[in-house]
UniProtKB/TrEMBL annotation:
Monomer. GO terms for molecular function: sterol binding. It holds the Pfam family E1_DerP2_DerF2. This is MD-2-related lipid-recognition domain-containing protein. It comes from Vitis vinifera. Catalyzes the intermembrane transfer of phosphatidylglycerol and phosphatidylinositol. Residues 28-143 form the MD-2-related lipid-recognition domain.
């Protein structure tokens, strides 16, 4: 009986690992290794990972600020194999609650990539500026886009 329970437990474990969307922490690099950024990034979570074209994806960035931030913007640049493919800009206060007090905070952004987005390993560069256009941080990290469905969901 114990062998059957062990097999069932292992089967359930592998099923959960395969079926539950993964959330992975990403390795972050600062744009300027010697830069003294006011905002320090601790962690980046992407769900699902890899991102599936035509399905929602969420990027959550955990960071900390030495001082309060009343507003600003976030600029995102995406490249595939070193070739720039996309740029977008967002109001900082649409990605997190403003004003941001000194200490820990999170930025979260969700979006759906078109179903025809090519799979591959992408690099994202994110710059954050305050209302005076002073750069608060600049980071880069890699993420993957997997194969999506080219057939519309019904």
């Amino acid at each position: 009986m114990e062998l059957c329970q062990l097999k069932l437990t292992l089967l359930l474990f592998f099923a959960v690992c395969l079926l539950v969307p993964s959330i992975q922490a990403k390795s972050v690099s600062y744009c300027d290794k010697k830069g003294q950024y006011a905002v320090k990034v601790q962690d980046i979570q992407i769900s699902p990972d890899p991102i599936i074209p035509g399905k929602p994806a969420t990027f959550t960035i955990s960071a900390s600020a030495g001082e309060g931030i009343s507003g600003g913007k976030v600029v995102i640049e995406v490249s595939l194999f070193g070739v720039h493919v996309h740029t977008e800009s967002h109001n900082l206060c649409e990605e997190t609650s403003c004003p941001i007090s000194g200490g820990n905070f999170e930025l979260s952004h969700s979006q759906m990539l078109p179903g025809f987005t090519p799979p591959g390993s992408y690099t994202l560069k994110m710059k954050m500026e305050d209302e005076s256009k002073h750069q608060l941080t600049c980071i880069t990290f890699n993420f993957n886009i997997g194969f999506g469905s080219y057939v519309a969901d019904s």
